[in-house]
Every structure is written in structure tokens, then in C-alpha cells.
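User: Show me sequence and structure for the first protein, then do the same for the second.

Assistant: Starting with the first protein.
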Amino acid sequence: MARIQIPIDALTSRLNLGSRFEGVRSQSLSTRFANLRPISEFLNLSRLSKPANFGEVQNRVNYNLGYFSSNYVAVGIMLLIYSLLTNLTLLFDIIFVGLGLFAIKKLDGRDLELGFARATTSQLYTGLFVIAVPLFIWANPISSALWLVGATGVSIFGHASFMDKPIDTAFSEEAV
């Protein structure tokens, strides 16, 4: 049976997604958030307006995704924190796995001796896996991930499509 080949380039070339995220990988965290726009500019209600057509929506989204990119990352991080705080089982499981892996790594390959029992690192990893995986499934991470994707997408693309470009930018584009 032949595998189906999906041309990802053909799907993403129209949105220019390849070049949009190239600079994100090479930037440090401090330079990433150096161009964080002020909240008064990000939530300027006087610039909110309904776009006239889909072409204007595309222009606004392309402009605002570049201009407010750091603000949108901050919105995504805040929604991620909110989603973890509302799903405490998932948060507990993430902390439990992180601390468990850290504690096993601290043993440096030696066995854990508790006086009455001895556990190898392989047994400790297996025990961590046996406890964490059912807890992870019970925490329903797929629901949280889908909510996070939906809430982030609606928030970011809603803001980007309804926030009009600044007047000086609009005039500079007409002159060209």
C-alpha cells in the first residue's frame, strides 16, 4: 500500500508560515520580549473596527501577527497557565513526573535503598511510568490541549482581524 504524500509547502506557502517563524527559533527570550507592545496600544479600542472584506482581514492579520507577535506569545502563555490552573490533575501529574525524573537522576545510577527494600533505577522508572500514565490519561490532556488551541486561535486571530492598522502605516502603504 502506497503512502499518501501531503505537500505541506503547498499548504503553507500561501500564508508565508515558513519565513514567519524562522526568527523565533534563533532569538533569546529577552530579545523575544523586547518588542512587547504596551497594553494601551495592544488594547486600543479606538482602532477596533469591522473589516470590509476578506482581503482586508488578510492584510490586518499579516500586519498584526508581525507587529504584536510578542503580545500574542504572552497571551498564549497566559492561556496555557490558566488551562493548567483549571486542570489541577494535569498540573499535579506534570510536577509529579518532573520531580520523579529529577529524583531518579539524582541517584546517578545507584539503587535506592530504603532499609527494608532495594529498587533499581529501572524499577523506579517503571514505577513512575505505571503511576504517571494512568493519572495523565485521567487528567484528560487532549481536552486541555484542544481548548488551548481553540482559545488561543480565537483570541489571537480575533484580535488580529479586528485591530486596524495605525494611520501612519495605512498612509505609507498608499503612497507606494
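Switching to the second protein now.
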Amino acid sequence: MMVPPFIYINGYPGVGKYTIAKELVKLLPNAKLLDNHQLIDPVAVVYERWMPEYQGLRKTVRKGILDSIATSTTLMDVTWIFTDSQSSDEVGSAAVADYIHAAKRRRSPLISVILTCNTDENLRRLQAELRGKTKLNDIDVLLEIRESEDLYHFGGDTELTLDVTELSPVAAAQKILNFVTKVAPGAIEGYI
């Protein structure tokens, strides 16, 4: 039996990554969700995003947790679902490299899901959601991000780009599960 996959969900802030990932966890009973804000929040207690030490501590926290997941024998039967908002710039590419490295160490298939939605819907969701302290809620900043940053793409057959503009979180999660089952046959069948 294959080691269960890492499912990496990337998208702009407010697109619905966390909400959809929570629905995906329900479809995969032996899955765990590591939301990017679980990695950001402890760092934000220490440093503001603009401080030079911020990215270094983010990397240390992220690598420490991913290394633990990758080498844990007690977590080998878990499908890991990660949410993130990484661009294709140097910082984003370095962050994604940590997930790639952990998946290789664990021998897990790495399945990339890029969530998109139209700008108007993204703005509506950003304003409608009850968002945590470290989550972006400034529409001007979101517009700047959407205009100036390209989301990181792995490319290849194990990447799904999914427009969630008109999809419910449940429907989006089902489409992701269908894709995972297609591209990594055997990786989750023994676990669901």
C-alpha cells in the first residue's frame, strides 16, 4: 500500500482554502489539516510581517513541523492536507520547497490544488468571512496581491486548478477527492 498523499491547497487569501480543506477532511476520515495560519500565528506573536526576522522564523517553524510529519512512524497512515498562499517569487518558492522535501522524505505523493475564483467573489468572501487576527481582510491589499503576484504552480499531472467561484465548499472538496483518487490510485483507498 502506498503512503497517503500530501495535498497542498494554494490560493489567494479569502478564496476558501480553509473552508474547503475542512470539508475534504470529512471525506478522508484519516486526514489531518494543517492550515497555513497555524504556522503563521505563532510567528506573528513574536514578529510583525515587515520585520526582517519574520520569514526566517516562519521557515524554522514550517520546516520543524514538516520534518516531524515526514519522519513520524505514528503518522504514516495520515493523509495531510495543507493550505497556503504562496506566490512564485523567491520567498514563495522556498516555502513550497519545504513541502516538496517533506513529501519526498515521507515518500508521499504530493498533489497540488490551486483554488481560484473571480475577483468580485474573492472580495465578497474576504469581507464576509469571520477571519482570524492574522488573516488578510484588507480588500486593497488583496487587490494588490492579485494584480502583482502569481500563485506558485507545481505543474504536471498531479496539479488541479479549480475555479471555486460558483462551487460550494462540499462540491469543491468532492472534486479534489476525485482528482486525488485519479492521480494517486492506491494512495488513499486503503485509508478511506
